[in-house]
Amino acid sequence: MKINMGSTDRGLRLLAAAILVGLYFSGVLSGTLGIVGLVIAAVFTLTTLIGFCPLYTLLGMNTCSRTAKR
Q1: What DSSP string runs through 10-51?
Q2: Domain-by-domain residue ranges, the chain?
Q3: Which of 28, 44, 52, 65 registers the highest number of CB atoms within 10 A of its CB?
Q4: What's the pLDDT tens digit per position in 27-45?
Q5: Angle at Cα 13 formed by Cα 6 and Cα 29, nearest 5°?
Q6: Could you give the CA distance from residue 17 to residue 34 in angstroms, rounded to a whole number?
Q7: What is the pTM (predicted TM-score) of this model?
Q8: CB distance 56 to 5 below 8 Å
Q9: Looking at per-residue confidence, does 66 or 8 come out higher?
């Protein structure tokens, strides 16, 4: 699996995940919308940790400045 996410992309995803989790636990997001937000936060966190986004592969995108294998 090749890394297709750059460091800026990974940082923004992690920030978005933290914001979504914060909104959920502060009560701003609740119910179904809150659960959807947590699922999106989990996906963002997972893709950030592994550095690979399957959707980028389907769209032919690569935000990584260099191509590396893991």
Answers
A1: HHHHHHHHHHHHHHHHTTSS-HHHHHHHHHHHHHHHHHHHHT
A2: 7-52
A3: 44
A4: 999 999 999 999 999 999 9
A5: 175
A6: 12
A7: 0.84
A8: yes
A9: 8
Residue found under tokens 């986004």: 53
Alpha-carbon Rg for the chain, nearest whole angstrom, is 14
Q: What are the C-alpha distances in Å from 58 to residues 4, 43, 61?
A: 12, 16, 8
CB atoms within 10 A of CB 54: 11
Burial degree of 53 (CB within 10 A; 0-12, 13-18, 19+): buried
CA dihedral for 59, 63, 69, 70, sign (positive or negative): negative
